[in-house]
């Protein structure tokens, strides 16, 4: 089984970077399935969902710091490690990788107001 491919597919934001690959290769073979199991727990955690995934570490840091061995804070006790959840859907991956359209619109309007204000004051940014 190609655990690296599973890892890169399921890691929010992708995991196919050279530092992540180096950290992955340093793992013991028996740890690789445990990393996938830990990653799936973290994918379901509230911590990784808040602020559109702001607190998701880089994939190499997830591996090197052995975050996959820890249980997320306020983790749902309903998690069954024997049940293999599928990878995140495309919508879930998109939501984690991109800001919501509402947040994007808010930032766009704020930038417009700043731009208008600077033009009125004769300032250049």
Strand content: under 5%
Radius of gyration in whole Å, from Cα? 19 Å
Rounded mean pLDDT is 78
Order of helices and strands: HHHHHHH
Structural class: mainly alpha
Measure the end-to-end span.
53 Å
The low-pLDDT segments are none
Summed up, the domain count is 2
Count all strands and give the number.
0
Q: Bin the helical content.
A: 40-55%
| Overall geometry | elongated
Tally of contiguous helical segments: 7
- Report the major sheet: none
Care to describe what's here?
The chain is mainly alpha-helical. It has 2 domains: 3-88, no CATH class; 89-125. Helix content is 54%, strand content 0%. It contains 7 helices and no strands. The protein has helices at 3-10, 18-25, 32-43, 46-49, 59-64, 90-97, 101-121. The longest helix is centred in the C-terminal third of the chain and has 21 residues, at 101-121. It starts with a helix and ends with a helix. The mean pLDDT is 78.
Index terms:
7 helices, single chain, 125 residues, 54% helix, mainly alpha
In short:
The protein has 125 residues and is mainly alpha-helical.
Break the fold down into its secondary structure elements and pairings.
Layout lengths: L2 H8 L7 H8 L6 H12 L2 H4 L9 H6 L25 H8 L3 H21 L4
């Amino acid at each position: 089984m190609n655990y690296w491919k599973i890892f890169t597919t399921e890691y929010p934001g992708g995991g196919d970077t050279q530092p992540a690959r180096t950290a992955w290769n340093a793992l013991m073979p028996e740890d690789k399935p445990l990393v996938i199991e830990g990653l799936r727990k973290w994918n379901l955690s509230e911590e990784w969902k808040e602020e559109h995934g702001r607190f998701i570490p880089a994939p190499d840091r997830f591996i090197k710091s052995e975050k996959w061995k820890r249980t997320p804070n306020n983790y749902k006790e309903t998690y069954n490690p024997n049940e293999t959840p599928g990878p995140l859907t495309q919508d879930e991956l998109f939501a984690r990788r991109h800001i919501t359209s509402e947040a994007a619109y808010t930032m766009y309007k704020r930038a417009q107001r700043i731009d208008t204000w600077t033009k009125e004051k004769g300032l250049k940014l």
